[in-house]
Write a structure and sequence with these properties.
97 residues; mainly alpha; 0% strand; 66% helix; 4 helices
């Protein structure tokens, strides 16, 4: 599994939040953002407490922001690694032998 597929390992306390995000991302991908209800996300995440999503995110918009921020951070880490590797390669090529 690549870093982009599982960008963050979460603590025990963050498990509910992570499960909600994973369920929401999967449902949004399958059916679209506006076709998925918060109740469906809670159910898909195995939450019996219907207020879990509101507790962790406050709204669907903030849930989407959290998902995007997590994915952007993962993409950014990979991008930085690639840029640094390329810079090192260019420095190595330009060094006189």
């Amino acid at each position: 599994m690549s870093e982009l597929e599982n960008p963050e390992k979460v603590s025990r306390r963050g498990d509910t939040r992570a499960r909600l995000m994973e369920a929401a991302e999967r449902l949004f991908g399958e059916r679209g953002l506006h076709a998925v209800t918060l109740k469906e996300i809670n159910a898909a995440a195995g939450q019996r407490n219907e207020s879990a999503l509101h507790y962790h995110f406050g709204s669907k918009a903030r849930l989407v922001d959290a998902i995007l921020n997590t994915r952007v951070a993962a993409i950014d880490r990979v991008r930085v690694q690639r840029v640094e590797a390329r810079v090192l390669a260019l420095i190595h090529i330009s060094e006189p032998t």
